[in-house]
Design a protein that fits this description.
Length: 417
């Protein structure tokens, strides 16, 4: 997919040279969602550094970052307490034959702040977590079928990757699909599972690419719970993207429906590689029976970073800070959009919003707006929800809003006859 933006790259130094080298030794020049081809053409392919809410590309351009590494950066890049904890652990050891005491401390901490969970396991990526959760659900129930929301992202394993190259029908044989908040489609998927329903996986709210975000309807969540209870199936909350940004706990911590398993990643370790699978007492035996492991899953540095991150989220009221920063950005940006004559939707929690230009040319405007914003020092994503961190101070948000105002003015000039 190429971005419909014909402007030449604004950068022609190190980034361009690295792209040429990458083309020779990296398939496609880059792979997955971090390919520059998915962005407007003035976006960099390579970044050099990050500090607080700011990132710098390899050509020295600085941006206010609203992608936060696709979510992990919850306290800002280079957060002092997190880096100190990681450095202290690194001075002892990281990857060894056996786990460190950090794994027990972190399991205790996460179980302690999550109402539904009695145990925790750790892995690296969110995909490890969601895939392991499915395996535990199948081990616990002795059944096979998992119901999955049609357009939700749960990772890049064959059972869930949005790209179908190399995926076989056998990889998806035990997956059935429904639509978010759509009870009839859920009933159909459930019927297709017949007496073989092992579980249902759901994101805490709808945060699919390129469409408005949506809260889960309480009635829909209750139906997910009811179906799992009536079939003895496992309700899995995929909180990889949102976990620890909305609550100091799971994104459903204060909701009246609770999952059996929750899967976490991203924000739990402020950028260090770590994911977590938390579950109920009734699934403990199945979780212990599943052979789930990885060479680096027990590494101590990310766990030390996670302990410090989760502590700092509470001590520094990071959730409150993100909510305030997110609201300031939403209010400023939606006001600017209106004053420049654009019709937009701005959806999702303010800590992880998505703004969409409405109308026939909406998608094109999204790309063009992101391109102009980048030219004015603001790094947004044209299709994916954005992220705010606790390092997005009022001054940073105001600096970003100055950039977006220029970007919207430029976009209005583009659109003028
Ligand atoms: N689930 C959700 C909801 C996600 O947003 C993501 C990553 N964007 C994943 C799972 C997979 O996580 P990872 O990329 O760390 O494998």
């Amino acid at each position: 997919m190429n971005a419909p933006n014909e402007r030449p790259p604004a950068h022609d130094g190190r980034d361009a040279a690295l792209r040429v080298r990458a083309q020779r030794v990296i398939p496609g020049g880059m792979y997955g969602h971090q390919r520059a081809q998915l962005f407007p053409t003035n976006y960099p392919q390579f970044l050099e550094s990050g500090s607080g809410a700011l990132i710098r590309d390899v050509d020295g351009r600085e941006f206010v970052d609203f992608l936060c590494g696709y979510g992990p950066i919850v306290l800002g890049y280079g957060h002092a307490a997190v880096e100190a904890a990681a450095a202290a652990q690194r001075s002892k050891a990281d990857c060894q034959n056996l786990p460190s005491a950090r794994v027990v401390e972190l399991a205790e901490m996460m179980v302690g702040l999550t109402g539904h969970a009695d145990w925790a396991m750790f892995a690296k990526n969110g995909t490890d977590g969601t895939t392991t959760a499915l395996t535990i659900a199948r081990a616990a129930t002795g059944k096979s079928v998992i119901l999955v929301e049609r357009n939700s992202y749960h990772g890049a394993a064959p059972w869930c990757t949005p790209g179908l190259e190399g995926v076989t029908s056998a990889d998806r044989a035990n997956i059935r699909y429904f639509d978010y908040n759509d009870l009839p489609s859920l009933a159909t998927a459930r019927d297709e599972a017949a007496d073989d329903l092992a579980g249902i996986i759901i994101t805490p709210f709808k945060h699919n690419d390129g469409v408005d975000q949506e809260d889960i309807h309480p009635a829909f969540a209750r139906e997910l719970r009811r179906l799992c209870d009536s079939d003895g199936a496992v309700l899995i909350l995929d909180d990889v993207r949102a976990g620890m940004r909305l609550h100091h706990g799971s994104s459903w911590e204060t909701f009246d429906v609770q999952p059996d398993i929750s899967v976490w990643g991203k924000a739990i370790a402020n950028g260090y590689p770590l994911s977590a699978i938390l579950g109920r007492q009734s699934l403990r035996e199945a979780a212990a029976a599943v052979f789930s492991t990885g060479t680096y899953w027990y590494a101590a540095v990310p766990m030390a970073a996670s302990l410090a991150t989760i502590r700092a989220i509470e001590d520094e009221d990071a959730i409150g800070a993100m909510a305030r920063a997110g609201l300031r950005f939403k209010e400023g940006l939606t006001k600017q959009a209106t004053s420049h004559g654009f019709d937009v939707s701005y959806t999702g929690p303010v800590q992880m919003p998505y703004m969409r230009f409405l109308g026939e040319h909406g998608e094109n405007l999204n790309y063009k707006f992101a391109a102009h914003a980048l030219d004015h020092g603001v790094y947004l994503h044209p299709r994916h929800n954005w992220f705010v961190s606790a390092a997005h101070s009022d001054a940073i948000i105001d600096r970003a809003l100055e950039g977006t105002d220029h970007a919207l003015a430029a976009l209005a000039r583009d659109a003028a006859p």
